[in-house]
């Protein structure tokens, strides 16, 4: 069973990263919040992930879910004790730091939890009923800003986006709105794209 991976970031997708560790590429699901932190790292910096390894008889294909900190993994495992919340649903819901989600549980903030992707008011109430009083050690009431969008691409190279927009509009005849839509879709699939050539290749692999 895999509990920890450290390596080079090869690709970053909307809900996963591809990590090169020991000449093997591992696809690891990550929360939107973890994804945003990974993308903020220097390209040369190794990515270190604590891994939750999930496999069952009903789902024999292993799923790896990664966290930058051990305490986030521990909170995630506690989150899974809520009925009707599986690993994939849980990781997609974590658009805020684990500490803020834990604080919302301890403060019984149904409205905050209900806004997490895939949760809703009824499940939020179930989360509080199951976990209230158990997540105090994780709770942090420091609000660093708005929640991270689970699908918003990270345009860390605006010059590349501007150049590709010009090619799509001026040379290939697409409207500006269509060009932006195509670029956004490509970056959502792989936010690790760094060159105009790679971005154009990604766009036309998907189709206009």
SSE layout and pairing:
Blueprint: E1 4-12, E2 16-21, E3 24-30, H1 32-39, E4 47-54, E5 63-67, H2 70-79, H3 87-93, H4 98-106, H5 110-114, H6 120-131, H7 158-171, H8 176-189, H9 196-206
Helix pairs in contact: 7-8, 7-9, 8-9
Order of strands, main sheet, comes to 1-2-3-5-4
Query: What is the CATH topology assignment of the domain at 4-67?
Result: OB fold (Dihydrolipoamide Acetyltransferase, E2P)
Apparent shape: globular
N-to-C order of helices and strands: EEEHEEHHHHHHHH
Helicity level: 40-55%
Proper CATH architecture of the domain at 4-67? Beta Barrel
Task: Look at the structure and name the CATH superfamily of the domain at 4-67.
Answer: Nucleic acid-binding proteins
Mean pLDDT: 85
Number-wise, the strands total 5
Radius of gyration: 19 Å
CATH class of the domain at 4-67: Mainly Beta
Task: Walk me through the structure.
The structure is a single chain. This protein has 208 residues and is α+β, with helices and mostly antiparallel strands. Among the domains are: 4-67, OB fold (Dihydrolipoamide Acetyltransferase, E2P), CATH 2.40.50.140; 158-206. The protein has nine helices and five strands; from the N terminus they run βββαββαααααααα. It has helices at residues 32-39, 70-79, 87-93, 98-106, 110-114, 120-131, 158-171, 176-189, 196-206; strands at residues 4-12, 16-21, 24-30, 47-54, 63-67. It has a five-stranded mixed β-barrel with strand order 1-2-3-5-4. α7 packs across α8 and α7 (158-171) packs across α9. The chain is globular and about 60 Å long. The protein starts with a strand and ends with a helix. The model has no long low-confidence stretch (mean pLDDT 85).
């Amino acid at each position: 069973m895999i509990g920890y991976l450290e390596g080079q970031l090869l690709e970053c997708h909307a809900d996963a990263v591809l990590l090169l560790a020991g000449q093997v590429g591992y696809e690891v699901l990550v929360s939107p919040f973890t994804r945003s932190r990974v993308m903020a790292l220097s390209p040369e910096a190794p990515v270190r992930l604590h891994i939750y390894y999930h496999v069952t008889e009903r789902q024999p294909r292993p799923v790896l879910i990664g966290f930058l900190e051990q305490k986030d993994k521990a909170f995630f495992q506690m989150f899974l004790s809520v009925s009707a919340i599986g690993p994939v649903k849980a990781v997609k819901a974590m658009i805020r730091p684990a500490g803020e989600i834990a604080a919302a549980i301890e403060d019984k903030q149904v409205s905050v939890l209900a806004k997490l992707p895939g949760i809703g008011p009824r499940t939020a109430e179930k989360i509080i009923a199951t976990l209230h009083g158990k997540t105090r050690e994780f709770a942090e009431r420091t609000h660093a800003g708005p929640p991270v969008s689970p699908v918003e691409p990270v345009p860390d190279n605006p010059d590349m986006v501007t150049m590709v927009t010009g090619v799509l509009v001026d040379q290939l005849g697409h409207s500006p709105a269509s060009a932006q839509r195509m670029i956004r879709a490509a970056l959502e699939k792989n936010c690790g794209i760094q060159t105009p050539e790679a971005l154009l290749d990604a766009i036309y692999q998907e189709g206009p």
